[in-house]
Design a protein that fits this description.
single chain, globular, SBP, D-Maltodextrin-Binding Protein, domain 2, maltose binding, 4-stranded mixed β-sheet, signal, 2 domains, transport, ABC transporter substrate-binding protein, alpha/beta, 8-stranded mixed β-sheet
Length: 447
């Protein structure tokens, strides 16, 4: 379950927090926060998610809490694992009541911005020193607003590796495609033999957001281009933003996908690749080693989406960090922040990798500990990664325009131009109906 979010929850999250912020702009300051570490008994509640995508995270968190308890006997931390569909609605209810978790898990980008806009979190930069935060991977890219860092990255998700089966490709005289022309050629050759080039499933929508991020990033110059389009300063019909729809239509026209892509959910389709019935597939970064092991490491090359654009992110893998934040109502913000910093101590960083095999979101992690070639490749891509575009658009725009548009283009019901026009129309609608959107996104884009 990787970056797989409930569509109703995504829409509700945007709606509820927009309502909370209606008529206001991004907070300009936070209340003074005490830096005194309490000596009385303290109980913190942490609502989190992540075991679903990084098995072993729960054991690591249990061990980390126990280690923190030894260092701070007066502090008890209760960690409550949330469901995927319940993570956002649960926090919405807590924010409305101003009670519940003291530390809350957030996906990156827009998902860490919205709680700040609704004043539901205290920026971690108010609590954690800048010389500590500077080590947290993607904090500045995704989780900052103006001079504030809102939430603290926990672990990194490379988004998204392309897994190519060299045995399937070589049997047809092909190598792993690196350019867009090479990919379309492979699609032509393999489809003529009844072989799927790319295995995917868009029935549940999620894969559409992946494709937007992987293809769309190749033409923009920074995440600020995306935010500018959300604000109406650029258009989603401009070539800068619409070119990826054309590339998507080309994959349909060249029969790159499995015929039932609109009937399968994402993870159902990936099994075609495991079974050797498709040459390539796309997975979440944390899943890639498992898929490679199933197919056989000697048969697989981990790569990026073939390049079509000339932007700085062409040929790069997206990167995003999952984060934790401090709620605005906690009685002990400094203790919550101190625990977050404890999560980033050398012992805990090393233990995270040992326990989960995933990359901690901290540039102080010792990469020499990584010997597996697949993980080393993924971690290298993540360290040099591109912005994950899906994290920089409103969740409603993602689900209503991107998810739906990808489904319709791949089934042949929409052209690339029509899908781009629909995306622009939805962005226009959201600016008209959400009075806080302009102010919030303007603040986010400010340096």
């Amino acid at each position: 379950m990787k970056i797989k979010r409930s569509i109703p929850a995504m829409l509700a999250f945007g709606a509820v927090l927009a309502t909370a912020a209606c008529g206001s702009t991004t907070p300009t300051s936070s209340a003074p926060v005490s830096t005194r570490y309490p000596t009385e008994n303290v109980k913190l509640t942490l609502w989190w998610w992540g075991e679903q995508e990084v098995p072993g995270a729960q054991q690591w968190l249990t061990d980390t809490i126990a280690a923190y308890k030894i260092a701070h006997p007066n502090v008890t931390i209760d960690a409550v694992l949330q469901t995927t569909d319940g993570l956002i609605p649960g926090f919405e209810a807590a924010a409305a009541a101003k009670q519940g978790p003291d530390i809350q898990y957030f996906w990156g980008g827009i998902y860490s911005q919205q709680p700040y806009w609704s004043r539901s979190i205290t920026p971690v930069s108010d609590l954690i020193p800048a010389d500590e935060l500077k080590h947290y991977t993607n904090a500045q890219l995704e989780d900052s607003n103006g001079d504030k860092t809102l939430t603290a990255p926990w672990y990194v998700n490379p988004q998204f590796p392309v897994l190519a089966r060299t045995d399937v490709l070589s049997a047809s005289g092909l190598t792993v495609p690196k350019t867009w022309d090479d990919l379309l050629k492979a699609c032509d050759v393999l489809s003529a033999q009844g072989i799927t080039t790319l295995a995917g499933g868009v029935k549940d929508g999620w894969f559409g957001g992946w494709l937007y991020s992987m293809l769309g990033a190749q033409s923009v110059t920074s995440k600020d281009d995306v935010v500018a389009a959300v604000l109406g300063k650029q258009s989603f019909t401009d070539p800068l933003h619409a070119g990826w729809w054309t590339r998507l239509q080309e994959t349909r026209d060249h029969k790159c996908w499995n015929n039932d892509i609109n009937s399968l959910e994402l993870y159902q389709a990936q099994q075609l690749w495991v079974d050797g019935k498709a040459a390539m597939t796309i997975t979440a970064g944390t899943d890639a080693p498992n898929f490679v092991a199933k197919a056989g490491a000697d048969r697989v090359e981990v790569t990026t989406m073939p390049t079509w654009g000339t932007g700085p992110y062409a040929g790069k893998m997206g990167t995003t960090s999952q984060t934790v934040g401090v709620t605005s109502w906690t009685k002990y913000p400094q203790v919550a922040a101190d625990f977050i910093m404890f999560m980033h101590t050398p012992d805990r960083l090393a233990a995270w990798f040992t326990t989960t095999g995933s990359l901690p979101a901290d540039d102080r992690f010792d990469m020499s500990a990584v010997s597996d070639p697949v993980k080393k490749s993924l971690f290298t891509y993540a360290a040099q990664g591109a912005p994950y575009l899906e994290n920089f658009i409103p969740s409603a725009l993602d689900s209503r325009a991107v998810f739906t548009g990808v489904q319709l283009v791949l089934q042949g019901s929409k052209t690339a131009a029509q899908a781009a026009s629909d995306m622009q129309a939805e962005a226009d609608r959201e600016r008209r109906t959400d009075r806080s959107l302009i102010g919030n996104f303007t603040s986010w884009s400010a340096k």
